Amino acid sequence: MKTDAVRGHLDGLLLAVLEPGPLHGYAIIAAVQQRSDGALQLRTGTIYPALNRLERLGLLGSSWESVGERRRRCYRLTDAGRGSLESERTAWHEFTTAIGSVLNPAAGAPAPRPAS
Amino acid sequence: MNAHAADHAADHAMDPVADHVAALSAALHGPVRAKSRMIQEIRDGLTDTVEAHTRDGVPPDEAARLAVREFGTPEQLVPSCQRELTIAQARRTALSVTLTVPFLIACWHLIWTAGQGWQLQQTAQLVAVQLAAVAAVATLLMAAALAATGALARRLPTPERLPLAVAWAGTTAGVAMVVATLALAVLSPLATNWPLVTLAAMVTALSHGVVASSARACRRCARLPVAHGAGRG
Description:
The complex is a heterodimer.
Chain A: H1 3-7, H2 10-17, E1 23-24, H3 25-35, H4 47-56, E2 60-67, E3 70-77, H5 79-103
Chain B: H1 3-13, H2 16-27, H3 32-55, H4 60-71, H5 74-114, H6 122-148, H7 162-187, H8 194-222
């Protein structure tokens, strides 16, 4: 999937992969790619300012932690972040339901009458 | 150039990650700590990507080139990184004003009420009141800017020109502090409580140094191109 298509949903993707627990930058990218089975291609550099922005909004917290042999900035979801993730999920569900009902109308639904 | 420096330069020239990080670092401007943290995270991310490619069997040189290509060019990344650094600089300026100005107004008020043995001329009183009013208005604007770029930005979009407004409000507060410092310096020999007035002048001058330098950096950041509509906040 193209980078531009993913960009509008970046906040939701980042919040979602942090839901199970704290991760550092590269692990977040790897988690998005793993969950999407490689279908979502993030331009990896874009996530760092996005993480900074979400932290400024209070949706993420962060701290330097030892991961392996190096210290890395690890991000975790805050309570406000969990609330925001739920809102993102609800909005995404409503959106896909609405689009799906147009693209794939139910078999039993009455077909629209052709314009006379 | 000595041999060691030449070797170092040659190593650097062959390291796409170091070149990429250096290019980003040169292009970005903002508070030292915020920029340093962002650059460190970017360097860590690139290093992790190189390691991941190397583990997959890609030769190290090719892994570094691949990591940089996946990361995005400086032209693609600088606007969104700079937006965060510009907002960080605006918040820093806003914080410096909201922390210093109420304290200074309290100091000036203390001098005013403690100076019972001397009276300011009517013109000087008028200037002092107007200075305090300018500083108070700037402080309110800064407090609003802090809210607008913090938790409030989850619901409301941050105005694109807010950092510029903060920069000029900070500059105005800085000018007010210069005028106040000069006024206090002129008044101190005339005041019965001159040590207190001199101390207040020094504190005001110090505050001016902090606020004016932050406002100057904010003006510079606010002139740089940034990404628009990158998401909430």
